[in-house]
Design goal:
Layout lengths: L12 E8 L2 E8 L9 E6 L10 H9 L2 E6 L18 H16 L5 E6 L1 H11 L8 E5 L10 H14 L2 H7 L8 H13 L2 H13 L4 H11 L3 E6 L7 H11 L3 E4 L6 H4 L1 H14 L13
Parallel strand pairs: 3-4, 3-5, 5-6, 6-7, 7-8
Antiparallel strand pairs: 1-2, 2-4
Helix pairs in contact: 1-11, 2-3, 4-5, 4-7
Length: about 300
C-alpha cells in the first residue's frame, strides 16, 4: 500500500467528480501554474488498497513542466462509489472505466499520457486490449508485472484476504499494521481510505492479483498495432514483482526500462522527483511527443 508523505493539496489542485457510464469517480486534478503553458496531461491510476493521493508528490514537479495531472480513485476505491450489490466487479469493468475517462480527457486537445501503478497496470492493460486504439500519447507501467504476483507478495495478499473476510477492514488494517504512521493526519487518512473501499472490490482485486495470467505478448501486439510508446519503470528495491521480472517484461514488450535507486514498490512516493525526471525524459524521446512536452528541468 502506498502511503502519501503529505496530504496538503499543492497550489492549482482540486478534488473533482468524474462521470463515466458505471458511475462517478473521485479524482484530484492539478493544473500547471498560470505562467506555465499546459502542454500535456497525465492520467494516474493507483494500485490495490491505494488511492488518488498516492500521486500527490508528483503534482507540483509535473505542473512546473506544463503537465496537467488527473489522479483517480478506481471503482469502489477510497472516495469513488462502488458498484451495486447485484453487479459483480470485473477487470473488464475497470478497463471500461479507464477507456471512457481517457477518451473524455483527450477532448481537451493536449496529449494524454497514462501512468498505472501496480494493480493499475492490469487495468491499463485491460483498457488497451478491450477495444480500438485509445487517444494516448504514451503509457507507463509503474511497479507492475506480467501476471499474478509471485511469492512472497502472494502470501501477503492471501493473508490480507483472510483477515478482511473475518474482520472489518479498519480492524484488519490495524492488525496488519498498515495504518501505522507517525503523522496522526496521515494515519487518519489511511483509515478513511480503507473504510471507504468497497470490501467486494478489495476481494476481487486480491483475487486478480493471485490469478491474473501473463498477458505480455497480447499487450506487445496492441502496442505495435497502435504504435503506442510504452515505458516500464520501477524501484530498484521492488518487493512485489522483482526488478528482474519487470526488466524481463520490458524486454518482451520491446520498450525501455528504468529502475530508480533507493525506491521500493511505491517509487512514486519514495522518489517522486526521479519519477518525474524519468517520465519527462521518456516523453521527450517518444516519437509522438517530442514537440508536445517540456524537456526535463536541468
Amino acid at each position: 500500500m502506498s502511503t502519501p508523505p503529505f496530504l496538503e493539496l499543492p497550489p492549482g489542485t482540486c478534488r473533482v467528480a468524474l462521470s463515466v457510464g458505471a458511475g462517478p469517480l473521485s479524482a484530484l486534478e492539478a493544473t500547471p501554474p498560470q505562467e506555465v503553458e499546459t502542454r500535456a496531461e497525465l492520467v494516474c491510476v493507483p494500485g490495490f488498497t491505494g488511492s488518488k493521493e498516492d500521486f500527490l508528490p508528483l503534482l507540483e514537479p509535473l505542473g512546473r513542466a506544463g503537465v496537467r495531472v488527473l489522479s483517480i480513485d478506481q471503482r469502489g476505491q477510497c472516495d469513488s462509489p462502488g458498484l451495486p450489490l447485484q453487479k459483480p466487479y470485473t477487470l473488464e469493468g475497470y478497463g471500461e472505466d479507464l477507456r471512457e475517462l481517457i477518451e473524455q480527457r483527450a477532448e481537451a486537445g493536449v496529449p494524454v499520457h497514462l501512468l498505472a501503478h501496480s494493480f493499475g497496470g492490469y487495468v491499463a492493460r485491460q483498457a488497451l486490449l478491450d477495444g480500438p486504439k485509445l487517444p494516448l500519447a504514451t503509457v507507463t507501467l509503474l511497479g507492475t508485472g506480467p501476471g499474478a504476483v509471485p511469492p512472497p507478495a502472494a502470501y501477503r495478499v492471501r493473508f490480507f484476504i483472510a483477515v478482511t473476510r473475518m474482520l472489518h477492514p479498519v480492524t484488519g488494517n490495524r492488525l496488519l499494521r498498515l495504518d501505522r504512521n507517525p503523522d496522526p493526519q496521515i494515519q487518519s487518512f489511511i483509515r478513511h481510505r480503507i473504510r471507504g473501499n468497497d470490501r467486494r472490490s478489495l476481494q476481487a482485486i486480491a483475487h486478480w492479483l493471485l490469478t491474473e495470467p501473463d498477458r505480455v505478448d497480447e499487450l506487445a501486439a496492441i502496442l505495435r498495432r497502435d504504435e503506442l510508446p510504452c515505458f516500464v519503470l520501477c524501484g530498484a528495491d521492488e518487493t512485489t514483482w522483482s526488478t528482474g521480472e519487470q526488466r524481463g517484461m520490458a524486454e518482451r514488450l520491446g520498450v525501455p526500462f528504468t529502475a530508480i535507486p533507493e525506491a521500493g514498490h511505491s517509487v512514486n512516493v519514495d522518489q517522486p522527483e526521479k519519477v518525474v525526471e524519468a517520465l519527462l525524459g521518456f516523453w521527450a524521446s517518444a516519437p509522438v511527443s517530442q514537440a508536445d512536452v517540456a524537456e526535463p528541468a536541468g
